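[[Per-residue structure]]
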Amino acid sequence: MLRVVVPIVVLVVFVYGLIDLIRTDARETKGISKPAWIVVQIVLPVIGAVLWFLIGRPRTGSAPAPSTYRHPTAPDDDPDFLRNLEQRRRNQAEADRLKKLKAELDAKERGLGNGESRPGSGETHDSGDSAQGTDEVK
């Protein structure tokens, strides 16, 4: 049983140490450079992994702050998107309101243009003695 457990433990330590080393940023390694650490771990599997964990691995407190890492966010979690969405909604509501007011104004003008005289429009009504007629231009 010992002949099975020891190689499995050695393999697990080697693979875990190598994966941890590969995932670590090159600027955060201590002691020697990252490629040198990889060579040490491959040449001396168990000793290299133990040395990596004791000497070369960055401390957990020295990890970059989570606020410096910008990961993609869902649209409903992004405050800029929500702010722009609210602004677009307001702009659309204002545009709809203006369209409605314009349609009402056009309807009133058409209603007044169908024979109703507008007060103060400057139109004069002659008794028919005038030979010259006036055409209203819209």
